[in-house]
């Protein structure tokens, strides 16, 4: 379709012709029709097309009209578009006088350099149609348009087109096809476009996969949920397990069947008004919940709902809340008698989320009573994203903080101020992601999970391959962790045809934070987490590093402690508690009178004590995460864990998201041959004394320990700044998922005139590791290339 404008002498005299390049998420999101309509509004002639770099457009009009056009294009693009850059391109040839504005055929799409569009929630226009009895898509569970719906999860290849998506299995009916080819329709080139006649359909089965015939699948499921049933529902990126959140018996049964006794569940509510009945919510929280990405948002439980929510999120002041993102989810919440649903990932413990129908029935048949399937295949499994808004002193707008970056955000790239070439990074062993660089962009995959089983590892390998194909990248460098036992590391080293760079875990953490904040040069990195293989062969995790992408020096760390029984100590942190007591008091523990220790059988206490004293099967670690585990166990908060970080999370929960600092416990910072070592033994002795009192205040002791960690960070950083004259500080690692630690560290350092940097674009936990691996590997390759060239 073209736009024709009449010529006039005055118009021809004022005409200018300019060409512009638009980069970002600008394909598959209705960008060309948007440009077409905008040109009509501003009475501009010329053309627009897709090519391998994004969108190219040539405008012919008076300069004011072109200026206004570009301003409006940048300020108000289509809902799913994300413009990274708009710049003018030189026109080498003489431009003709255009009499219309055309959408030209796409050019040079063999080598794509555009951004893969993430999946999006269903838009308001589609919801209105879905709820309109007179609309042909009334109650259609797969309604979508150019402004919403599945993207990354269904894409088979690029450029993004129906024939290169799982929607190729469905031939559009005449009515849908008319919408698809009409540039004035909002479904113009909406690749998942479909309706009841030609598109995907819901399928209902029992737990064995036998079909259940019903007039209305959704209403049947709502009735079963109200009766207490557990339903596995295929969503946009995989299966959810769903129960009525207000039915405590149903929630308990879900926990029993899924073998998930303590880990919190997330819930889904219809809207923010409904959410306000369960959690405390402010305007920024509403914006996060209602954003097109529809993440799970961690919010504080409403005081009137704490007891009701204990079964859903035990021993935790927070509740993960999300709003519906798919048409089916909106339909499930249409019954006022079912206002809140538990919506948790459909997977076996430790395995990736299930996304294929037969495997779902096979794996989840012992958990779910019913299955809601559909015949639209998912190409890429994608979990829900998890975020939190944090408020810092002197900041009017809360900062977004990722705990899991997945649906709605992946595989959107991080933009760097420098090129890192083409590198593939395999991430960490836990909470892993894959990153692939292309020039100044690093594309980060969705959350994949923990590489502890074959299924997750296969998903990891498939993700790396699929992203390379979508991005048209054939990298010459493969980055992985330094740990020799990691599956991804072993697999990488076996790749004989590609260069492999092993990156130390905490160095990757530090550089990841530097990269997303656009930093370079010498930096102090405070990296606190649970586990990372150190350059000396021991397990690190309470580290102060000095360096940049090219290398680092370990300039400070936590005094090492023992992990009695190795990994067993991570599952039973009471073992760490015993080792801390032996470190603090020596061999004689007979006079230690602490309830958590007294609760141990005499035999276990004796065995653990001997292991610590004689260092039997007890590797050392400098991990701050393990110190948290040991202190939590010592206080009797959590002596055995079901999920990663549980001991620390439950200890932080006692603070009730109240960030006021308390008097720190005692500790010592020693200079050991130029390296600052934080000696925690004084605080163990002080804690032991307090815990031996008749009624110790566990909440206050938790606050004092948290405040001590903040004090340690500030004390060591100030000493390092004085010693090295470097004020650029980054904070990274899973310990900084702790809101109290992060907020108070930022506030305390800024009170000393220091601006610390933290993660806001990728998770501070191991989900952000792959970004740092890319940058470190690229720096190493660059350095070696310069050396070989004699530079």
TrEMBL record:
Keyword Protein biosynthesis included in the entry's annotation: no
Active site, UniProt feature: 32, 50
Domain of life of the organism encoding this protein: Bacteria
Domain YrdC-like, chain residue ranges per copy: 215-408
Swiss-Prot/TrEMBL keywords: Hydrolase, Ligase, Metal-binding, Transferase, Zinc, Zinc-finger
GO MF entries: transferase activity
Enzyme's top EC category: ligase
Catalytic activity: an acyl phosphate + H2O = a carboxylate + phosphate + H(+); C-terminal L-cysteinyl-[HypE protein] + carbamoyl phosphate + ATP + H2O = C-terminal S-carboxamide-L-cysteinyl-[HypE protein] + AMP + phosphate + diphosphate + H(+)
Annotated metabolic or biological route of this protein: Protein modification; [NiFe] hydrogenase maturation
Known EC number: 6.2.-.-
Pfam families: Acylphosphatase, HypF_C, HypF_C_2, Sua5_yciO_yrdC, zf-HYPF
Ranges in coiled-coil conformation: none
Ranges where the Acylphosphatase-like domain occurs: 17-105
PANTHER family: CARBAMOYLTRANSFERASE, CARBAMOYLTRANSFERASE HYPF
Role, per record: Involved in the maturation of [NiFe] hydrogenases. Along with HypE, it catalyzes the synthesis of the CN ligands of the active site iron of [NiFe]-hydrogenases. HypF functions as a carbamoyl transferase using carbamoylphosphate as a substrate and transferring the carboxamido moiety in an ATP-dependent reaction to the thiolate of the C-terminal cysteine of HypE yielding a protein-S-carboxamide.
Recorded family membership: Belongs to the carbamoyltransferase HypF family.
Protein name in the entry: Carbamoyltransferase HypF
